[in-house]
Amino acid sequence: MNSEKKHTAATIFWLIGTTKDLLAPLALASILSCLTRLISLGIYVLAGAGLVKVLDLQGIAALQSLGWGQMAGLIIILGLAKGVLRYLEQYVGHRVAFLSLARLRRRIYAAFEHQAPFSAATRNSGSLLARATSDIDKVEVFFAHTLPPAVSAVAVSVLATWATWTQFGEQPALIVLGAYLLIGVIIPALGVRALRSDATIIAASRSAQNQLLAEAMAGVEVLHGFHAGNKTMQRLRDSTSEAGTAALSTGKITALRAALTQMIMWGTLLALFIVLGTQGQLGALVILSCALVPSFEAVRAVDGFILGLQDSLAGARRLHDTATRKPAVTGPARPEPLPETGELLIQGLGISYGSSSVVQGVDLALHPGEAVALVGGSGSGKSSVASAMVRALEYTGTISFGGVDITAASLEDLRRKVILVSQEALTVRGTVRDNLLLGMEGISDGQLVAVLEELGLATWLAQQKSGLDTRLGDRGARVSGGQRQRLALARALIREPAVLILDESTSALDAATEQCVLEAVERRRQQGMAVLMISHRLATVGQAQMIVVLYEGVVAERGNASELLAQADSLFSQMAIREVDRILPG
Ligand SMILES: Nc1ncnc2c1ncn2[C@@H]1O[C@H](COP(=O)(O)OP(=O)(O)OP(=O)(O)O)[C@@H](O)[C@H]1O
């Protein structure tokens, strides 16, 4: 088996495994589909027998003995039964499909949750989600339109061949069997490889289009500002034209298959006419011709779903890859509880992205009620250290909290006690309250308002007619960058963490507002919260009891502000001089 086939087989087993308890209803849908098709066949055969009776030909003895009333009655009963069974088949089939899709969605979103923490590597997870959502919808074909039609195609063709053999002899049966094999097996196999590759191209280009559109929507101001709209549209057009070429190739193959199917259907009738007509079995010819219409219909469905299946499998393969990819960071099977408070100790911390090592041998201690600042040039590794402290990335060395290695604790426990507030200040679609609580319970509106007031948002909140019920809009579009940062900080403060990491999380604030925010943080520090401040602005970190200066991923200096400023050639002094120079040039 080549690797592509192995991949497809693994995907199918995974799909079935994900939804294994739905296999019983899926089997029921298949049985119902079979029965519906067989009843159709029965109705057409009865209609054919009626025609034979009118034309006074020799047909099937058992049917010819039926009176007109009996025939009409049987057709009505079968018609009603078909209606009921078809309803049930559709109901069960789609129920299975939608339940499977709901389950798949949960699996995929859970996989994203583990694989997309707040690390820089996965900032594009929004468009990943859009892609996964459309892939999941495509998988519906696999459940609703694959197994039941395939089973009924086999059942109908076997039964019709057997009935032809027993009623009309070997030659017509072989002709009918040949037609079923051609229509149900040979034609659907034509061009499958090309169809699969077209489906992969189309799926990939749809996902690229989704991604492009999601990026363009998120950064529409930037694109307009840099007059990059045309370039983006061109990329979109290129991707569309690639998908168009693949769709055209799919169309050609589909058209060829449809033409061949028609030729075989009419050729079969002609062959039967020659065989049965020359034998004078015109009655048999009429009945067989009537029966072949619905049976061909059942077998032709194989061609239809094979086309949909290629597309569906291309989406499913990507979902399988996503769901089975190893999460960047996992919690232990038997987590050890972290104490409510304690020293956060980093020893010999090393961080690499791929083969590039960006942090080496960093030691840092953060005691309860202490504020430590981490400073350094852009790219010196500050955010990477912060990410390691909440296990958003893999690292070497050890980080412990209250004497417990954080890798021994559950991610949930760690991230409840150590909270990272980053510059990006994520907001979700919803109200101010939704954004602050993010599912947290037991916090009153009064507490929320008090924190917002502390962070200088009292006036803004008073201006909002709906107060805490004010909606923030998509990506917090209705609030400023500084307000968004303060909402993100409020979200952290109401959780009363033991350690708060502020990674440039006041960067969008003016000096007065930043001071107000830092005072709120300082009040909590005095009550025992440890604070790690990461900032380029030295004024922000000047109050810290300890300043750690990172240079190219290693600790270059440590001490308090006055100690570091006392050394004229320290990196910190140079940073301070540059900051003053910016204010007082020359
Ligand atoms: N996801 C990533 N993949 C690859 N390299 C990364 C990734 N994130 C960061 N880096 C690299 O790691 C180094 C340290 O980045 P980091 O964001 O930790 O620095 P920083 O000191 O916080 O920078 P800044 O002050 O600009 O935010 C940089 O060289 C950066 O390019």
UniProtKB/TrEMBL annotation:
It comes from the Bacteria. GO terms for molecular function: ATP binding. Residues 27-292 form the ABC transmembrane type-1 domain. The chain crosses the membrane at residues 67-85, 141-165, 171-192, 264-288. Keywords: ATP-binding, Membrane, Nucleotide-binding, Transmembrane, Transmembrane helix. It is found in: Cell membrane. The keyword Metal-binding does not apply. It is a multi-pass membrane protein. Residues 344-577 form the ABC transporter domain. This is ABC transporter ATP-binding protein. It comes from Glutamicibacter halophytocola.
